[in-house]
Description:
The chain has helices at residues 3-19, 50-54, 58-66; strands spanning 24-31, 41-48, 72-78, 82-89, 95-101, 110-113, 120-124. The chain is an alpha+beta fold.
Amino acid sequence: MSARMYQLTALAALALLSGCGASQISLNVKSPPGTNLGRPMYMLVRQVDPKQYANEAYSEVASKVGAPDNTVLQTSVIYPGTIQRFQVKAPAEGALAVSFLFTAPDGNWQLLLSPPMTNAVDIELTVSRILSNSIPPALPQEQQAAAPEAKPPEGPKLPELPKEMPKLPGGK
């Protein structure tokens, strides 16, 4: 094979690997001792449509633990007082939902990972919800565009006042 052919093959492989995003995602779940009132709970990882995800009820998601459909990629038991690591295969298309089935959810009980997927996500749980600072940004840090500085809106320009007031007729 010629050197040119090797270069083309390497470029094609690189394009395939970089264009697909992460093929495996590491989920690192930190669950302090008081999580879910000290009781084990289920974590459900699914491929979802973001629009459908926004309208899902807790009971609808919870039913997939006992009767998983083709969107369920992984079901795991989360034990309080542990840090657990999971490898999940990234879906070919669509987003990924990570749901925690707390006994009494109070706030965020699931999060959405949208493409392009990052290689690793750290999730920290509390008694009955996901800590908001563990919810990842929409894009990996290196791909986020710097937000332009906000400028206050400009109002209409007022005419400049003269430096000296004009003299009135008949005045001293």
